[in-house]
Amino acid sequence: EFSHCYVPYKSSLADITMFHSKVYKQREGNQPECKRWKQNIFGPFDGTIGSTLSCRNCSSVLSLDFENFHCLPLSPVADINGDIINGCSLVDCLKHFTVLEHLDNYRCDHCWHNAASKYFSLQSEVDEEKVNKLRTCVDYDSCNCKHLFGPEKTTWSVSSKATKQLAITRCPKILCIHLLRASISFDGELVKRQVSTKKDT
User: Fold this and answer.
1) Which end of the chain is more exposed for a tag (fewer CB within 10 A), N or C?
2) Which residues form the Peptidase C19 ubiquitin carboxyl-terminal hydrolase domain (predicted)?
């Protein structure tokens, strides 16, 4: 069943923000992003795609972004050789669109703050005020924590593993799908693949 991969049509974006693990950003004029999206979605073909980026090391949701769409671009499911699998259905394409993507060697600022606070708290001369600032910091994108102890002491990098997943957070009344048949051959040429997609009822 694909139904668990998206929020039903009659659900609102406000329902999405109820989950404690989600991060919601404030936009211009302190207008919540949820309200802004509600104002922009009107027609029967309009829907919303949500993209969630999470750190597997610290379980933090690093970003939650939304994008409006009128036509959903789907790629046919291919095998390891790049050939479209036989019997590929629209449900298969939708599941492939929302599959969890694993990212290695990702730099998570939350993990960096955790590692830095542990490292400096174990030093012989501990600056409790600076260590506490590292532990309580939440402005990872704009903070100056890397300069608290001098650039020569905070040059290490923390490699994390992350996951990225797309979801149809608001499904339109009429879902328009664009099958992406174009692909790049081994010779670097743009080719169109023959697609015979099974339509589920």
Assistant:
1) C
2) 31-186
